[in-house]
Structure formats: C-alpha cells, structure tokens
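seq as requested:
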Amino acid sequence: MAARMTGMPGGNLTRATLDTLGRAIVTGEYDERPFPTEAEIGKTHGISRSVTREAVKMLTAKGLVSARPRQGTVVRPAAAWNLFDPDVLHWLLDRKFSVDLLRQFNQLRVAIEPEAAALAAVAADAEDQARIADGLARMAAAERGEDDPLDSDIDFHVAILLAAKNPFYAQFRETVATALNTSIRFTNTIVGRSASVEQHAAVAEAIAARDPVAARAAMRALIGDVLDLIDAPVAV
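struct tokens:
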C-alpha cells in the first residue's frame, strides 16, 4: 500500500492510484482505521495533489468513499458500493475467492442473459450473428487447444448482450466479462475441461433460427448448469 508511484504518465499514475486505493478499501485495510487525507496519500505515494484528488473522485463515483463535512473522506459500507462497476467487481473477486459471490453473480446472469438471448433472436442483425458465430467457433478451437478458452467464452456471451440491441443489456458487458473470467476458471477446475461448446451452440442456433423461446431456454439451461456446479458438494 505504501509503494511510491513516481515515473508514470499522469493518466497511468491516476489509474495506479485508483487501483491501489480501491483494492485497499475492498480488502478491508480501512475497516479499523480512517481513510487517509489527500495530503497523506500524496506523501505516501509520492504523487501530486491533482492526481490524488482525481483518484478519490473516481472512488467516490464507484460508491467506495464519500466526503463528509468536518470528517473528510470516509469509506462507505459495502452495501453502497457499485457492484456493476468492473473495477469494484474485479477487486471483490481478487480479494478472496468466494463461492457465495460467484453464486450471486450467476444468479444475476440468470436474470439477464436468457432475456438478452431472447431479444437477440429477434433483433440480431447479420453482423451480430457473425460475432456470435465467431465466438462459438473460437470456443470450438479452444477445445482443440487452438484458442484461449476464457477469451472465447467471454466473447460469445458479450456478443449476445450486444445483439440484444438494448443499451441497458449492453451496459452489462464489462461486468459480465470481468466476473465470467473468475466463474469460468472456477467451473473448469471442477469439470476438468472448458465450457460445453454444445450448450453454447444450442443458444447460437436458437438465435440464428429467430426462436426467442428456445434461445431463452438454452441460455437458462447453460447458466443453470453453472449454478449446479457451484452448489455441488465439491464446491463448498
């Protein structure tokens, strides 16, 4: 936490400060002690007041801290954190592996991705269909050791969120990509292989066939299997 960050470009310096402070908050470094002042942060890390101020503003936007009159900047309770922010989610997942957090994330996916698949079956254009097909092809290649299993799986799911043609679903792409990275790694260690290409193909085929009911059911089944793996005795 006390590492100095001199020698970086301004933008990178702000980002590094944000990451250091955000990770410290989420891992509980300030549970029993007050959050430092901007002057203290600057002195500890050898950074300017402007860099410190910008990083603290970003922490505020993420719901991690707030400024109170006569109290300075304080850490907010975890319930106030923006869990849809990719940085916050990344810090949470890195903090300490939690089966409960993984389960909760996939419960959220059940509420979002099946409906996104159903919308994609209606709204996807040729470019969307090609992006989904490419993600599926990359997953098949990954099974043969010719592509990255994490990146290909994530690309497939993000392609469907974008194909829904709904800006609210599209906003979930970074959150889904961040948390899927951990979810996929965890489930792969259980089954001893990459995600089922056949299950993903069922989703892609239903979208290509313009069948929203089948697309919704196929995606729900896919995520349901992930939840079953998480809740299996070996996972607890």
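Residues 188 and 194 are 6 Å apart (CA to CA).
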